[in-house]
Each structure stands twice: as structure tokens, then as C-alpha cells.
Design a protein that fits this description.
6-stranded mixed sheet; alpha+beta; globular; 5-stranded antiparallel sheet; 294 residues
Length: 294
């Protein structure tokens, strides 16, 4: 287990020509693994996605903003869905949690093969009548590369994304984290070349953590001593479901459907896929909810 708590750091570098987000997410990724009881590949794929979502949550301009990332590939994972808010609270799930594949050519978990080819869709709900939806093709299924492509094509922002999840021999999460580094429109050519050279030498973000570099250390290793951390946020795996929210969902199905449930004479169980929680309503509770409809 690491000595660091989960954190999302954001700030500026290279004379304010570069902005960055860097996350350490071992705790929330391990919590997701425990909730969903995922295989190692599924843990890595979901963990990378949750880490990315936490950093993109930090990009939100309004406290009420919510983003959803959907990765739909033709690989055995079947798909990944994660959400995040401006407080870097995230939740997510994989369609198939028990996927096992041989290691890839580099000897690592074959996340790309598990995800496959398909599309990455990012839905940003910023309080307007309709959410903003952007979509690009998956270029590798490795998630970091797919997000790098998304930012370049959909948002037209030169971006480098690095994501990693390192498991121990018992398949618990040892380290997890990542970075999103973006060039601002007025970045000079020499800054662009410098950043390209720096990133060319980065192969695995979790190797830095395994070697003892803290998240703050890694900011300065990647972006120089003058990189300025301007905001620190504690990300967490958080599901906003509750019994009262589920009650509202039951009520919304209407009187006829609720009357049918009551006639069946069996308790009704509603399941939240994001936190793996069951909410069971006995017949008397269903009758009380029906009565509230008037």
C-alpha cells in the first residue's frame, strides 16, 4: 500500500503555456475493484477510465457540471461507463467484469485487446437544454491513447494523456494514477518541442509511483521545477444513489405498474450497478408509495 492519499493536482507550467492535471487514485480504484469484484484486466481498464474521469471532473467550470465517458468497444469487456462531477467524485462500471486474456507483447495486461475497437463518447452536462456530446473512434483501446486522440480531434486541444493501474501479486491495486497535459493556444514552438521531448521519455506513470515519487514529485519531474500547483482536490469513488432516489424512480413508473407489482405479492428489489447496492421494497412499502400518488 502506498504512503500517499488520493489527489488530483492541477496547475500551470512552462511560463503558463502548458496546463496540467495529475492524479493519484489508488484508493478509489481499489474501492471500485472491491465493489465490482473485477478481474485484473477489468480492474485496469475501469481504473484508467475512473482516473481520467477524475481529472476531467477537475476541468469542469461549474460546480453543477457532470460528465459521462462511455467506451464502447467490440472486445470482451463489452464497454465501460464512468461519470464524474466538478468535485472529482467518480463512479463507473464495466459490462463484463470477469474478462481474462493473455498478456500483450510487452508482457502487460492486454487492456487494448479487452476493449477492442469502437467509439469513445464524452457527454458533458453543463446545465444547458441539451448536453454537449463528442465522439471519436477508439484508436487502440488503451484508453490514454484514445483520450489523447479525442482531445485533439473533438476538442482540438493538443493533449497528452497518461494512465496506469499497477496490481500486486494478489491482484489488489498497488498504485494508480495518470496525467493530462495540454498546450495552450499561445504556446511557443520551443515549448512544444520541449514538451514532446519530455513526454517521449515517459513510459509508465505507475513506475514513478512504484519508485517512490510522490504525485507532487511527478509534477516537477515531468514539467520542471517551476511548474506551479494551483489547486488540489481529493477524488473519491462516490455513488449518489439512495433509498429516497430509488423511491422516486419507483413512483415515476406510474400507478398501473405499481399496482401490478403489488398484485404479484412479492417484494421488489432495485439494483444500482455503480455501487452494487440492492434496495428492497416490501409490499406494504409499495402500497405506501402508491398511496402517495393520490
Amino acid at each position: 500500500m502506498s504512503e500517499w492519499n488520493d489527489v488530483v493536482l492541477q496547475g500551470m507550467a512552462a511560463g503558463n503555456e502548458v496546463r496540467f492535471f495529475l492524479a493519484y487514485t489508488r484508493g478509489l480504484v481499489e474501492k471500485a475493484r472491491q465493489i465490482h469484484d473485477t478481474s485484473p484486466i477489468a480492474t485496469a481498464a475501469l481504473g484508467r477510465s475512473l482516473t481520467a474521469a477524475a481529472m476531467m471532473g477537475a476541468m469542469c467550470k461549474n460546480d453543477s457540471d457532470v460528465l459521462t465517458m462511455q467506451i464502447s468497444g467490440d472486445g470482451p469487456l463489452g464497454g465501460i461507463t464512468v461519470t464524474a462531477d466538478a468535485a472529482c467524485r467518480v463512479k463507473g462500471l464495466v459490462k463484463q467484469k470477469d474478462v481474462f486474456l493473455p498478456a500483450n507483447k510487452a508482457g502487460h495486461l492486454n487492456v487494448g485487446g479487452a476493449v477492442g475497437r469502437g467509439v469513445l463518447r464524452l457527454i458533458r452536462d453543463v446545465g444547458l437544454k441539451e448536453p454537449y456530446v463528442g465522439q471519436t473512434e477508439l484508436v487502440s483501446g488503451e484508453i490514454a491513447e484514445d483520450l489523447t486522440y479525442y482531445f485533439a480531434v473533438s476538442d482540438q486541444i493538443p493533449t497528452s494523456v497518461g494512465l496506469g493501474v499497477l496490481l500486486n501479486k494478489e491482484n489488489y491495486v498497488e498504485h494508480a494514477g495518470g496525467f493530462i497535459i495540454q498546450l495552450l493556444p499561445f504556446a511557443k514552438e520551443q515549448t512544444i518541442r520541449w514538451l514532446e521531448e519530455v513526454l517521449a521519455g515517459v513510459h509508465s506513470v505507475t513506475e514513478y509511483f512504484a519508485d517512490g515519487y510522490s504525485p507532487e514529485d511527478l509534477v516537477h519531474v515531468l514539467l520542471g521545477a517551476d511548474a506551479s500547483i494551483e489547486k488540489t482536490t481529493v477524488p473519491e469513488y462516490y455513488c449518489n444513489c439512495s433509498r429516497s432516489r430509488v423511491e422516486k424512480a419507483l413512483i415515476s413508473i406510474g400507478k398501473a405498474e405499481m399496482e401490478s407489482m403489488i398484485r404479484d405479492g412479492e417484494p421488489v428489489t432495485m439494483h444500482c450497478d455503480f455501487c452494487n447496492t440492492d434496495y428492497t421494497f416490501e409490499i406494504d412499502e409499495l402500497k405506501s408509495l402508491l398511496a402517495s400518488l393520490g
